Amino acid sequence: MSFRPITHIRHFDIAVPDFDKQVEFYKNHWGLTVQHDDGNVVYFAAEGSPEQYVTRVRRSADKRLDLVAFGAADRESVDTLAHNLASTGVKLVFEPTDLQTLGGGYGFRFFDLEGRTIEVSTDVEVREHRKIEERESIPVRLSHVVLNSAEPEKMRDWYERNLGFRLSDTLNHPHVGDLFYFMRCSTQHHSMAIARGPHASLQHASFELRGIDEYMRGSGRIIRAGYRKIWGPGRHRAGDNTFTYFVDPNGNTMEMTTELETIEEDTWHPHIYDVQEPETSDQWGTGGDMDEFITKEMFNDSDNKSLYVAPPV
């Protein structure tokens, strides 16, 4: 696909039944900053990111992934993408317009192949942000989001064909097939990945820290706060990034990471990594094996009831 409208990931938004505990987790332990709070929706920013917010938590009786938002270069890209999607039968939630969410901007929403709500926007107001200092163990930015899919091959093809994502690497099991597709929209190794799972759901969201020391200090802070660590600290082969995975108060998996690989677009050739090799999951060998328990934790609760149902905000 020559048309590549997506420039980066902006934010992911969730709805949770245990709203107060989720807000407390992000604010007092994970290291995010409350950008806006209306009592039922809280917008969280990362101190080092120019994005107005990197995640949004909405009070709801039902748990769900509300949406994933990506940036586009300009209004022409937004309009062209909306036209292209509509012309191929993709259902738009609303057509390009001035956005009423925090930071404004110009964008639209639509349902992806499996019915998740996706937003693409441009001209969002830049947030005043700052350099994260040495030993400051708070997120710099949102790194990436991983989506579970029962048909990851179809999802990969859809995002490549319709949104211009490119495949960076694949995790494969010789007897099961492809398990993980790492997808990029920039020189960052992946801003999104698609994982094989039993249903559509959020597999995990990942936050970038300043460096190794800050990543370790941040991981240690969450461990000391009593939140359940399910895997890490370690270092993946695909993307060459570090990882520590935790379960948040509503059962979502959240990752702390750093040093995600930057690639040369014109010379990169995707690898296929065998998950049976221990170094594929963890080059360091410090995080423990990627076992069935960890995999099931990251399946998360199914979003099937909310597919093709746009969030109210």
From TrEMBL:
Per the record, the coiled-coil ranges are: none
Taken from the record, one Pfam family name reads Glyoxalase
Q: Which part of the chain is the VOC domain?
A: 8-123, 141-259
Q: Which InterPro entries match?
A: Glyas_Bleomycin-R_OHBP_Dase, Glyas_Fos-R_dOase_dom, GlyoxalaseI/FosfomycinResist, VOC_core
Q: Which domain of life is it from?
A: Bacteria
What SUPFAM superfamilies does the entry give? Glyoxalase/Bleomycin resistance protein/Dihydroxybiphenyl dioxygenase
**PANTHER family, per this entry?**
GLYOXALASE FAMILY PROTEIN (PTHR21366), METALLOTHIOL TRANSFERASE FOSB (PTHR21366:SF31)
Name the record gives this protein: Oxidoreductase
Q: Which species is this UniProt entry from? A: Microbacterium aurum
Q: Give the lineage.
A: Bacteria, Bacillati, Actinomycetota, Actinomycetes, Micrococcales
